[in-house]
C-alpha cells in the first residue's frame, strides 16, 4: 500500500528516520546509491544497517542484510518491523537476495521510504516475495517424503 510518512505511527516515522540516518554510513563509492535499514527485533531493540559495496560487485552487502546479520549475531531470531530508505523519491524495493534472506525469519511488516520525499510503501516480507521458498517448505518436504515412504 502506498501512503505518506504522515500516515505512519510516530514510532514508524522515527524508524524510517533511522533508516535515512543509516544511509550516511553507506560505503557506496561505485554506485553512489545509498541504502539504509532499521530493523526492530522482537524485544524492541533497533538495529541499523547500510549498504557496503566492493570492487567485486558480488561481494556487496545490502543494507537489509547488513542490519539482519548484525541482529542475528546478537542472537535475535524474531523481528517485528523493517524500514528501508533510499534517495529515490519513489521508494525502492529490496533486491531478490535480500527478499529471500528476510523471509527466512517469517512474515513481518516492511516500510519502504525515501530521504527525498514523504512517500512510503507499506508491505510485508511475504508481500515482497509471494510464494516464497521458506523453512516451512523444507519442513513440508520432509513430512511429505516420510508419508510417502510409510505408504509403500
TrEMBL record:
Alphabetical UniProt keywords: Hydrolase, Metal-binding, Zinc
Annotated InterPro entries: APOBEC/CMP_deaminase_Zn-bd, CMP_dCMP_dom, Cyt/Deoxycyt_deaminase, Cyt_deam_tetra, Cytidine_deaminase-like
CDD domains (alphabetical): cytidine_deaminase
Active site: 64
Annotated positions binding Zn(2+): 62, 95, 98
Domain CMP/dCMP-type deaminase residue range list: 10-136
Catalytic activity, EC: 3.5.4.5
Binding site for substrate: 51-57
GO molecular function: cytidine deaminase activity; identical protein binding; zinc ion binding
Cofactor: Zn(2+)
Catalytic activity: cytidine + H2O + H(+) = uridine + NH4(+); 2'-deoxycytidine + H2O + H(+) = 2'-deoxyuridine + NH4(+)
Name of the protein: Cytidine deaminase
Gene3D superfamilies xref list: Cytidine Deaminase, domain 2
Native organism: Caenorhabditis tropicalis
Any Pfam family: dCMP_cyt_deam_1
Domain of life: Eukaryota
GO CC annotation, single: cytosol
Biological process terms in GO annotation: nucleobase-containing small molecule metabolic process; pyrimidine-containing compound metabolic process
Role, per record: This enzyme scavenges exogenous and endogenous cytidine and 2'-deoxycytidine for UMP synthesis.
Coiled-coil segments on the chain, per record: none
Protein family per UniProt: Belongs to the cytidine and deoxycytidylate deaminase family.
